[in-house]
Amino acid sequence: MKLDTVIAERKNKVVYKDGGVVAKVFDECYPKSDILNEALNQSRVEETGLNIPKIEQVTKLDGKWAIISTYIEGKTLAELMNENPDKIDEYINLFVDIQINILNQKAPLLNKLHDKMNRKISETDLDATTRYELHTRLNGMKNHTKVCHGDFNPSNVIITPDGTPYVIDWSHATQGNGAADAARTYLLFRLNKKNDLAEKYLKLFCEKTDTARQYVNEWLPIVAASQSVKGKPEEREFLLSWVNICDYQ
Hints:
Order of helices and strands: EEEHEEEHHHHEEEEHHHH
Distance between the termini: 52 Å
Structural class: alpha+beta
Mean pLDDT: 94
Shape: globular
Helix content: 40-55%
Strand content: 15-25%
Largest sheet: 5 strands, antiparallel
C-alpha cells in the first residue's frame, strides 16, 4: 500500500488513502494492545450491520502498526454544517437519528462502559473525596447494553454522495448507557465552543429518546472526569469545571 495521500492527521496517528482503502498508521509509541482493541471494537460493531468502514487488515507498514479499512467517499457532517449553515436543523436532526440507531444496537462482546468509566475515574488526579463521589454516582446509574460510540461528533459521520451516512472511528466503543454517550457528545460540542449547537443537540436527543435532561446531566461529571484523562492540557480546565457532584440545571 502506498502512503502518499494523507487524509487526516491526529496525535500519534496518520490516516492515508490508497484507492478504495485507508490505512490508519500509528506511531511506534502507540500501545499495540490499544491498536488491536480498536480493530476488535470495529469488527464487533461491523457485525451489528451498521454502516461503518469494514476492517480489511491489521498489519505493519514501514515498521508501524496499521489498521486498513474500506474508504468511504463523501463529506463529514461537520463539513456540511460549515458549508450550509442554513441547514443546521436538518443536519442536527439527522445526527441525532444516527446516534439513536447506534444506541438501538447490541454488541455483547464490547467492553462495558461502566467498567471503563470506573477505571478512568481512578486514573484521574482528582482528590480522593471527588473520586469517591464520582464512583458512587456512576455505580448508582443504570447499566444498559446499548452500543455507545464514545466519540460521536459530526466529524465522525460521513455522508456519501447518495446521502447514506457512515460512522467512523470506533476506538472508544463500549456497551452501556446511551445517556452517557449523549453527555459525551454534548461536552464535545462545548469543547469546540459550539454552545448553541450543544444545546440544540441535547434538547433534540432528549425529545427523540424521551430522556429527561436531568438524567443526562447526571452523567456530565462522570464523562468529564473520564475525558480529562486523555492528557489534553488545553481541555483540562474546562473539563474539570464540569467534574462537580452537584446537579446541573
